[in-house]
Amino acid sequence: MARIALDAMGGDHAPDHPVAAAVAALKELSPEHEIVLVGPQERLAEALSGHNGVADRIRISHASQVVGPTDQPTVAFRTKPDSSIAVGLRLHQAGEADAFVSGGNTGAVMVASTLILGLHPGLDRPAIAVSLPTMGDPVLLLDAGANVDCSAGELLGFARIGATFARDVMDRADPAVGLLSIGGESEKGNSVVKEAHGLIAADPSLRFVGNVEGQEILECKADVIVCDGFVGNVLLKFYESVGGLFRHLFSQESSAEGRTGASARQFHRLLDYGTYGGAPLLGVRGVSMICHGRSPVSALKNGIIQAAHAVENHLSQHVGDQFARAGVKA
Amino acid sequence: MARIALDAMGGDHAPDHPVAAAVAALKELSPEHEIVLVGPQERLAEALSGHNGVADRIRISHASQVVGPTDQPTVAFRTKPDSSIAVGLRLHQAGEADAFVSGGNTGAVMVASTLILGLHPGLDRPAIAVSLPTMGDPVLLLDAGANVDCSAGELLGFARIGATFARDVMDRADPAVGLLSIGGESEKGNSVVKEAHGLIAADPSLRFVGNVEGQEILECKADVIVCDGFVGNVLLKFYESVGGLFRHLFSQESSAEGRTGASARQFHRLLDYGTYGGAPLLGVRGVSMICHGRSPVSALKNGIIQAAHAVENHLSQHVGDQFARAGVKA
User: CB B233 to CB A218 under 8 A?
Assistant: First the structure.
């Protein structure tokens, strides 16, 4: 069982979307799971009043402040100690919740998660892992922007925690790990990537499938693709924008036809981030999951369900064990 | 007027596509332009025999060898001195042609261009600039893979030669230059990008519009986008693959309908690399233009026309002048 603290004030449609997502998630999850909605008591009680059937598994934890989408993360952390983000993470840190999920300000969640939960030894900051939609199963890309100027050792760390997440949460029993580069051969890439290739290949705990080139990202050659946060961030934002552009063209076409064909449905499913849930902050002591601020209810719901799987499968402990082993080896 | 040496043996459909592209280009270019087809004399004469009307502006220069798509560039340079690539570039170097265009092995063209034409002082290798299709005018991205582990000074160099190409060949009188990064503010990016931001901003010859994020690449915020060759190569290949994927879905949809709507046409035009021509190798002493190996005739034709514009507008001299000025300043 898992008790999930949910930032009820995070995202463009808070608190309605988070509350609806919480109710929907509890209907899917087995009955021992519980959700703590974090936000203004009265407002949340009102938002909840329209929902039936899961009231005994939802409670509200009051938080008087809200971090806005444009707030500076470190400033928000200092000046809004009673924000829904800070209160939710403190619940998790104190053991009153097993995970934290938010559709709010990504930077603020990252800073607060790092400062309140702390990191497993061996990390300077958490990695953000994102699921990229493909025609098949989603591919996990990390880091998506938390770490720039990465060392080869950090890329190895991303490979390890990415593989662990894929196993514990994405149901990939033996995930294939790839390294983003500009050619298939081990000697292709920039200096950090070439060094990382050797380190990742030498780790017997990883099923390394070698370099993955740009055109292979969506071919599901690897379950987990490792890159520094600069490349990962550019790529993620570019993919979202290309998807938006093509979605626009496709919608024009479909609406001109007055109906939607099978390919159009496949196309929308491909680009429907709602089916993919959240982006975990990997490396924190605990489970912290970020959902897109514009997430539909289904995405937030899936983020909550992923967080519950992460708790049940002991993700944080497995990540910690990995770094502990690496520390002993070093 | 310009005399273009065309590698008649480069690309998947050589020599038919190059020959057809040469004929089509001459029909569009003003009558003083000429093309030298480089490749096996007899085979090219035969391929040419079916084409009429421009025979007095095409001649053949014999080359007995062909570089294949999988040949190692440096090995090919050493072992195939009579390849169509080497012969064509030597014609250019000797002043018997003003530019070289090839749809062949990119690496081989890059190596041979560098060794035969030489580079303007201040460069270690040429940059590859590619035109990315957008809903509006194409955006020039460089470097697309020739230079990894770039310094901030190299990124400044890319900004300068990219702007020069945009002015001389893409008809952008006062091109906007952007720097690819992970946030809009000057302090966002990896260490090299942050340093490059200061260098580019301080160059009065450039109209710098600041950082460009992943989602802004296709928004035509900048005419020229600067990045290191690692990021550029990943992005280019990723975009081509996403385009292929969406094109596939779109075709299924359109063919299921038995006709093609306005949006589908817009969509295909967006992804039709044929309209964009070649990728110049910027920094060589001369004009060397690489077209995609799978280029349709229209892309090769446009590459030839771009090369002619580059010659007429003194691209190479302008690039050389820039580095000479930079050398004096330093």
Answer: no
